[in-house]
Design a protein that fits this description.
The chain is of the alpha/beta class and 375 residues long. The protein has helices at residues 18-30, 41-51, 67-76, 94-103, 115-128, 133-182, 189-219, 232-249, 267-284, 341-351, and strands at residues 10-14, 34-38, 55-59, 85-89, 107-110, 228-231, 253-257, 262-265, 290-297, 301-307, 355-360, 365-373. Strands 6, 7, 8, 9, 10, 11 and 12 form a seven-stranded mixed beta sheet that branches. A five-stranded parallel beta sheet has the order 2-1-3-4-5, sandwiched between helices.
Length: 375
């Protein structure tokens, strides 16, 4: 027989962010868990002493008494020595991870919290208290291995962030030298063409570097963005001019049919979304075909479409192409890789309250972005 609501262990959620508390509350209550919320470390300790929860979800960084101090305080209490504590944090770095373990944390979950993962971690934490001594020893061995893997993953992510950041200066310098060459009137036509090709490739590298950096920010729920009215026609005109030389090398017609549309978005993020979608279209468009950008008003949004006339994307792949490093055989190209550009597009669009999806272009693929009207 299932446990009654009253006998189910209480889960204490300590987080100073109201939206985070609301998300965790909804996720846990939908699965029948009892939940108590606390908005500060001090409030969390009082709640712990009053109700002796079966599990604590604890934010790391909070004003006043932070999560690390709360965890240490709980561990000093006789009833808190074996209470499972799961840290929730937007700080995805080795130092925070080590501090959480040293304070006495049992698990470490990074924000933004995924509901399914949260439920799995909470259920595992609750089961931990019911383990026999022998099973607990096995669990501790597995957990130490998991912690070592997590720490290694965080170290790899930090190293990648450092390397990617340091790549920007040399690539920018490369682009600058190509510009200086193009100013030399004595340069031959073939050399000028080579210098323009260098600039195009340097621009592609810079976009990829920015994409890597922003995907990292998105993992930490720290992707910058300041929504404001954006004139789509003016923005797309700028993007089109920067991509026309590349389109010309494949004899592609680049057609932009957008006029009179204004959306609420972060201008820089939106520009880079369009650049990534256009880059994707140009890579997969057959020689001598047309790539088009159009827009239309719907009841509650403006839908921007970027279409090519390539091989298209099968229905079963249209969600997966927005994942990182997806390989798709020879569906779109010889390499069949979608890289990181589309993953960034999904992150940036959803961050601004929009949606991105793919329609069948017959032939080709049409990438659609839904953006908010300016009201």
């Amino acid at each position: 027989m299932a446990k009654s609501v009253e006998t189910r262990p209480l889960i204490l959620v300590v987080d100073d962010n109201e939206q985070n508390r609301a998300l965790v509350l909804t996720t846990l209550e939908e699965e029948g868990h009892r939940v108590r919320l606390a908005a500060s470390g001090e409030e969390g300790l009082s709640a712990f002493d009053e109700e002796l929860p079966g599990c604590v979800l604890l934010d790391v960084r909070m004003p006043g008494t932070d999560g690390l101090a709360v965890c240490r305080a709980i561990r000093t209490r006789a009833v808190g020595a074996d209470t499972p504590i799961v840290f929730l944090t937007a700080l995805r770095d080795v130092e925070t991870f080590d501090e959480a373990l040293e304070a006495g944390g049992d698990d470490f979950l990074t924000k933004p919290v995924r509901p399914t993962e949260l439920l799995v971690r909470v259920q595992a934490a609750l089961k931990l208290r019911r383990l026999t001594a022998e099973n607990r020893d096995h669990y501790e061995t597995i957990r130490s291995q998991r912690d070592a893997m997590m720490r290694l993953q965080l170290q790899k992510e930090q190293l990648m962030a450092f390397v990617v950041h340091d790549l920007k200066n040399p690539v920018s310098t490369l682009d600058l030298h190509a510009q200086l060459l193009l100013r030399d009137k004595a340069l031959s036509a073939s050399s000028q063409e080579s210098a323009r090709a260098i600039r195009n490739e340097a621009g592609l590298l810079l976009r990829q570097i920015d994409t890597l950096l922003d995907l990292s920010k998105g993992d930490e729920a720290d992707l910058a963005g300041a929504p404001s009215p954006v004139d789509l026609e003016e923005l797309l005109s700028l993007v089109r001019r920067s991509f026309e030389p590349r389109a010309n090398t494949k004899e592609l017609a680049l057609v932009v049919n957008v006029s009179g549309f204004c959306v609420l978005a972060d201008r820089d993020l939106l520009r880079r979304v369009v650049e990534n979608l256009l880059d994707n279209a140009l890579r997969h468009a057959p020689h001598g075909t047309t790539v088009t950008i159009t827009a239309e008003n719907t009841a509650d949004a403006v839908v921007l479409r970027v279409a090519d006339q390539g091989l298209g994307i099968p229905a079963h792949m249209r969600e997966r192409v927005f994942e990182r490093y997806v390989q798709a055989g020879d569906v779109r190209s010889a390499k069949g890789s979608y890289g990181l550009g589309l993953a960034f597009c999904k992150l940036a669009v959803e961050h601004q309250g929009g949606r991105i999806w793919i329609e069948d272009g017959q032939p080709g693929a049409t990438f659609c972005v839904s953006l908010r009207h300016v009201v």
